[in-house]
Design a protein that fits this description.
Layout: E1 3-7, H1 14-29, E2 33-41, H2 50-61, E3 67-74, H3 77-88, E4 92-96, H4 97-108, H5 116-124, E5 127-131, E6 137-140
Amino acid sequence: MTLVVVPVRYPPSSHSAATLREAVRVAEERDADLTVLHVDLYQNPGGVSRSDLKRAVESHVGKLDRARYVVRRGFLVEETILEEIVAEEADVVVIGSKQAGRWRRMVQKLLSDPDIESFLRSELDSTVITVARDGATESGDAETGAPFPDDGDD
């Protein structure tokens, strides 16, 4: 079974909502299950429950039949997201461009060329789709890193 993972903030920002809509579209197109992930930071009290996350997400995209809502606690958002993606063996990861930027800065500390999309594709063996605030997307194949051809669907 194909799995799409989408990390989001709580409450979802407008950018998170655009990322969620794209993740739902991809999951439906691929007949996939969807994991909606939120990372609660240990250093910020007042945790988010799964039901809080579910209500907030459904207020933006409607009821989702094949969705799983996951709230993980961690010190670093990016690391916790990566751990979840690897543990779930995600086939597709849909991230906001802001999240890609944060990962880029994290990887930059380790590597001289912080191309996060290529790094994620090579390390996770997943398709990575990056969503801009306006909903525009970039995607690539996990194995080649090459962009997918535009199929004309918007």
